[in-house]
Amino acid sequence: MPERRKLIVVSNRGPLSYTRENGERVAKRGGGGLVTALRGLVAYHDVTWIASAITDEDRAVSDETIDETARDGSPFRLRLVAHDESAYDWFYNVVSNPMLWFLQHYLWEVAYTPAVDHGFHHAWEHGYVKVNEGFAAAVLEELEAEPDAAVLFHDYHLYLAPRMVREEAPDATLSHFVHIPWPQPDYWRILPAEMRHAIHDGLLANDVVGFHSSRWRLAFLRCAVDITGAAGNFSDWSADHRGRRTRVDASPISIDPEEFDELAESPEVLEAEREIVERRPECLIVRVDRTDPSKNIVRGFRAYELYLEAHPEMHERVALLALLDPSRQDIPEYAEYLGAIQREARRVNDRFQSDGWLPIDLQIEDNFPRSVAAYKQFDVLFVNAIFDGLNLVAKEAPLVNMRDGVVVLSENTGAYEEIGEWTLTINPFDVAAQAEAIHEALELQLDQRRARLGAIQAYVREHDLARWLASQLDELDRASARVS
Prior knowledge:
With 484 residues, the chain is of the alpha/beta class.
């Protein structure tokens, strides 16, 4: 049992959000992998969770700290920060998404986009900076009450807040985990100098900065040197900047195997699995993604088209089940990409379908039980992300698979560093090679399929979510020891 400690967790989205139903306040559990992963902290530590107030009812309770309980009954405190609505729109829909997300996933077509105009400068100063100031103020108030608490910032929404906290609380213990890729220094030059400097300077105010892979860690340390002038040590993975040393860590997040074992046998999943089994052909290729441009869905459909073109003997024997969660549809780039996905699926289906056979079964809906059911039934799991901080699907799906399925995995995912040796490697831009990988996966001998899948399952069970959470606190302890 880990030693119980006081933690302040800070993320844009929180574990709960509130609404009104029949005049009563109702708490709804927050979604997303980050919230799911971090809830393990609540079971073993005294946690105050700071997050944005999203709904009207969230804003109504934003002046108070609420005592709440997790699903397992563990208590925690929730503090929701109310931002000016215009400021939050600029923060979220202009700077965080798409600018930072697109930049960090190498998604901009730099000959044409982005254009850092007066509107973006305004959104940065009056949106991103202001919202980070609001988070920092809330953290400082909590630290005043609990000065020994460690602060755990998360993700790309909050790059500036650590420096703001550090200026007022120089002895605080701060960490920041970045859940998305970190691009090379030159790509950061999309942003004006003062913005890219502020981002890296903000992160270097932490005692520890964490990433999912050594690849992103290396890129960040290079950026710290190049953009802020920090002294980088590439042997012990640290950066000295403004009189402080920041440890840069690589620690890939994982999942809770017991949770997925239970999910796989839940009534909702079993019912969804029955439906898939009734409809599935001999061979089933599965992809489970958000409709995010970084997931590379359109190229994936084109690769599948090339496979069908080269292997007419597989017509009516194979299908691609694409379970896609609609993502950020208020942002034009995301809405346009969803349209491109639908058009591409229709084009491939129109070309190849026959009576009783739909080559691409495209389902756009947030339905996690159906996704878990598909995990159990895949013969090939197809993950061709352009870039991905980790990609939890590559860990979740093999864990519960019942058909000795093969994972086809992009070399640009963080998960590739961990499980790549047991997958079929693809370059996310090489659609011809992706088509060949589909064929290779479906033709792989049973003993090889079984060995690869078993190796992934054993790795994920050993390197589970509890281990990742423990590693985050171990890094904080090492940072505290250095400071003291």
